[in-house]
Design goal:
Elements (H helix, E strand, L loop, with lengths): L2 H8 L11 H22 L6 H12 L3 E2 H8 L3 H13 L3 E5 L7 E5 L1 H23 L3 H23 L9
Antiparallel strand pairs: 1-3, 2-3
Length: 169
């Protein structure tokens, strides 16, 4: 975003619906919510939540992830992942094994049951993504991808900046 455009947005602070592009943000947020709900509905019959699907999908893609690596990928706190992993381990979806080089680290792997469940949940996710992508042209898909990468890069510093903001001014 250019500095000139950014300064125009600042004068609208406190009134998000007046910010140029707010309607676009709202469409993106609604689309994300619809996508999340559609996947949640499709994985529920498998006996897992969307959060569990996300863990399983990450572990099947990269076996041996640590708890911290999963938390980083899911953009959640490590303590949240710890409770989720414990529950999934009790359900027989995954196992945590000690790292050969550092016994303090536990690596996450799927069990055969977890692999079976993730195959079905990934098929459900693919169904939703296919439906979403089929609604637009290939050139639009590419343009949205490029735009969202720029937005992601712009938002990353906000995650690192955890200092309280002065909202009084």
């Amino acid at each position: 975003m250019t500095e000139q455009h950014s300064s125009k947005l600042n004068k609208f602070q406190g009134l998000p619906w007046n910010v140029p592009g707010f309607d676009v943000w709202l469409t993106i947020a609604r689309t994300y919510q619809l996508c999340e709900r559609a996947i949640t509905q499709r994985v529920a019959p498998l006996g897992i939540s969307l959060a569990q699907h996300d863990v399983l999908a990450n572990v099947v893609h990269s076996p041996g992830l640590t708890q911290q690596e999963i938390a980083d990928r899911l953009l959640v706190a490590r303590s949240n992942v710890s409770m989720l992993l414990s529950s999934m381990e009790k359900s027989g979806l995954l196992e945590r094994t000690k790292d050969e080089n550092d016994r303090r680290i536990r690596r996450i792997f799927l069990t055969p049951h977890g692999r079976k469940i993730v195959e079905a949940s990934l098929a459900a996710q693919t169904e939703v993504v296919d439906k979403m992508i089929s609604a637009i042209e290939q050139s639009e898909i590419m343009a949205v991808g490029v735009a969202m990468e720029k937005v992601e890069q712009a938002l990353q510093p906000l995650l690192r900046d955890r200092a309280p903001r002065d909202t009084a001014s």
